[in-house]
Amino acid sequence: xxxxxxxxxxxxxxxxxxxxxxxxxxxxxxxxxxxxxxxxxxxxxxxxxxxxxxxxxxxxxxxxxxxxxxxxxxxxxxxxxxxxxxxxxxxxxxxxxxxxxxxxxxxxxxxxxxxxxxxxxxxxxxxxxxxxxxxxxxxxxxxxxxxxxxxxxxxxxxxxxxxxxxxxxxxxxxxxxxxxxxxxxxxxxxxxxxxxxxxxxxxxxxxxxxxxxxxxxxxxxxxxxxxxxxxxxxxxxxxxxxxxxxxxxxxxxxxxxxxxxxxxxxxxxxxxxxxxxxxxxxxxxxxxxxxxxx
Length: 294
Hints:
By secondary structure, the chain is an alpha/beta fold.
């Protein structure tokens, strides 16, 4: 996959995003959004499968991550700003609309893009990410409130960065390895993650996504249904995000389908890489069919 990937930088919304691209340049665009604490490589196992199906795959490091810009300040990471980035990136593809996919935080952003700017999204694929208002509602009470303890911890000034980065990011590595099946993340892959986390300003910027979300909670609400065909994949063993948020999220879709993936958890893109790719390809269909519809 690495040899087939191209690395580009795209100016959007006042910042520069690093965007990995693969697949035929004239294919319909599939735009893939990673979550915390990953970067574009979170979708590494799916890029080749989508490119082989004829899609032009775009996978950005979202703001604050990897090789993308890392503006200072919590206010630079509000949800609507993150959504503005992706809307501008979609417009930069030259396509009227794209197939948008997101995992974890990338899924939260994708949910919001699809609701706010539905004309930009032809189909939506979400992996282990609840619709943002559903998530915040569940965080207020019940089990999800306990699962989300780390979001409050991330708001403490400087301490999270110190704990997560010491001993060559041992703590942040455990976020991945201790909540996934053995072997889901190889040593070589983890080395690339540590390199991304070590970039100046990266760890603070990544945590600022959470700080901004917690600060803006009162203004985030359900304000629009999702009209396009939507597939929600959910690894049912997710330790951070409860399965009880999946159905209420898909209920906000006009054409929604929920598929549970047994035996996998939050890192299902890695734990069931081939199965996830197969499910996504079945949902989105061959690129030639997409092109024929436009």
